Amino acid sequence: MRATENSCVVCEEVITNPICPDCLARQMRAWLSEVKPALAGTIDGGYVPGETNCLFCSKDMGICAHCYSRDVYEQLMLSDEKIAKEFMARFDFELRKEVVVL
Q1: With 0-12 CB in 10 A as exposed, 13-18 as middle and 19+ as buried, what is 1?
Q2: Average pLDDT, integer, range 87-99
Q3: In angstroms, rounded to a whole number, what is the distance separating the alpha carbons of residues 34 and 52?
Q4: Which three-class secondary structure state does DSSP give residue 61?
Q5: In DSSP terms, which residues pair with 61 in a beta bridge?
């Protein structure tokens, strides 16, 4: 499969839910600050250049919300499985189709 200009650099699918990792990380940290403050600082955004612009900050981006959320989910699974499951319910971005809930 060949990536298009508006596709994710990880999965090469067209970015249909354009929220950049920095904006997603901000929302994820806010939620974690309420439920498990010790994990909030472990969530980093990051800039991946691309041809799609974020709906919130208008910055260009090259990674889809699904791939970024999957990475955060996997990171949370290493620390707290219960929080990771709650995370999936709040920041799904089609993760449930891919990840088998334990």
Answers
A1: exposed
A2: 71
A3: 31
A4: strand
A5: 52
Mean predicted confidence (pLDDT) in 39-44? 95
* DSSP 8-state assignment for residue 78: H
Q: 74: how many CB neighbours lie within 10 A of its CB?
A: 12
Residues written for the chain: 102
At residue 12, the pLDDT reads: 93
pLDDT of residue 86: 94
Q: Phi and psi at residue 60, in whole multiples of 5°?
A: -70, 150
Which positions ≥6 away from 100 have C-beta within 8 Å? none
Q: What is the pLDDT confidence band of residue 59, given thresholds at 50, 70 and 90?
A: very high
Q: Which amino acid is at 30?
A: A
pTM of the model: 0.85
Q: Burial code of 22-60, b = ≥16 C-beta within 10 A, e = fewer? A: bbbbeebbebbeeebeebbeebeeeebebebebeeeeee
